Amino acid sequence: MADGGGLEANESLGEEWCDIEEDYKRVYLPVTYSVVFVLGLPLNALVLWLSWCRTKRWTCSTIYLSNLMVADLLYIASLPFLIINYSLADQWPFGELLCRLVRFLFYTNMYGSILLLTCISVHRFLGVCYPIRSLAYRTRRLARIGSAASWALVVVQVLPTLIFSETGSSDGQTVCYDLSSPENFGHFFVYGMVLTFSGFAVPSLVILLCYSLMVKSLARREEAGAGVGTAARAKSIRTILLVCGLFTLCFGPFHVTRSVYFFIRLQAVQNCPLLTTVSAAYKVWRPLVSLNSCLNPVLFFLSGGSNRLRLVQELRPNK
Which of 57, 174, 203, 216 is the most exposed place for a label (fewest CB within 10 A)? Predict the structure, then answer.
């Protein structure tokens, strides 16, 4: 599938029974990727600058969130290539190497973000539910090890995309396949489902379990605390629910629609309206995953009042 090749049904199934029109992508995808680029670049750069240059002592949260910002910036740097590609109606003028690299960076950012968010969730869970017993496990050294392990794992998980992603020819023009060339889709299907399970389903369960237990613990303390710290606990619960909502919005619909699309393509279901609808849903949600690059900096400012205060102090004109 060219990341939106208009005739991908014909190519993948070997029959000319369904011509999927995707003219909407010439406007929708460049606009959405441009918005992510314009918002994500300064936000992530600002947070990374505050962390790197204006933070004297890094906490565990700072280490994890700074790694998130690095992952986002690597991906954001690849967006101009996608903006130009879709503005040219899927024509890829940048060659084979950049095609593979851009696809690799997209999946590295997505699954790297998920793994780092999982580390943050476990860290916060231990701090809220086992504040004393977990002190030995909530150290900067272990945070650095966790971040490095997350990078290593995601690179291993995503490395096959460098093999599957390639350039090809469609309607007389060069395209950059998002998933794989049509003849290799059967092999990619197996890899794609394994990646969805290991890179999304399992971490999602860990994140939801951690935050559910955190909300339960905070609510129980609020009931037993006779009003002490009620406002702070309520704020923590709202923050947790917001983080879970943002995570679900960014990653959930994309993986669901992509999995359905995979099965329909693999089974060669000859239902053109169904294939068109599922293909459109998958491709509409795909760039919305990139919104996590804009929303991750929000986690930095939600992680503590000191972060917001430091930003205000840095932006305030010197008197």
Answer: 57
**What is the distance of C-alpha 157 from the center of its chain?**
14
| pLDDT computed for residue 306 by the predictor | 53
> Taking Cα atoms as reference points, which of 116, 59, 124 lies closest to residue 310?
59
Q: Which residue in this structure is represented by tokens 């699954």?
A: 111
Output the DSSP codes for 80-125: HHHHHHHHTTT---S-HHHHHHHHHHHHHHHHHHHHHHHHHHHHHH
- Indicate the length of the chain as a whole number: 319
The three-state secondary structure class of 168 is: strand
User: End-to-end distance of the chain based on CA atoms, in angstroms?
Assistant: 58
Mean pLDDT of the chain: 81
pLDDT computed for residue 249 by the predictor: 83
Q: Which amino acid is at 144?
A: R
- In this prediction the pTM is 0.84
Cβ neighbours of residue 303 under 8 Å, at least 6 residues apart?
61, 65
Secondary structure letter of residue 278 according to DSSP: H
**How distant, in Å, are the alpha carbons of 21, 31, 101, 172, 178 from that of 26?**
11, 9, 22, 18, 16
Neighbours of 134 (CB within 10 A): 15
At 270, give phi and psi (nearest 5°): -90, 70
Region at 227 (left for phi over 0; alpha for psi -120 to 50; beta for the rest)? left
Place of tokens 């809220």: 128
| For the chain, the helix, strand and coil percentages under 3-state DSSP, each to the nearest 5 | 75, 5, 20
Map tokens 């476990």 to a residue: 122
Q: Which domains does the chain have, with CATH numbers?
A: 20-315 (1.20.1070.10)
Distance CA 239, CA 191 (A): 35
223-280 pLDDT per residue, tens = 655 444 566 666 667 777 777 887 888 899 999 999 998 888 877 666 778 878 888 8
Q: Which residue, 100, 131, 74, is CA-closest to 290? A: 74
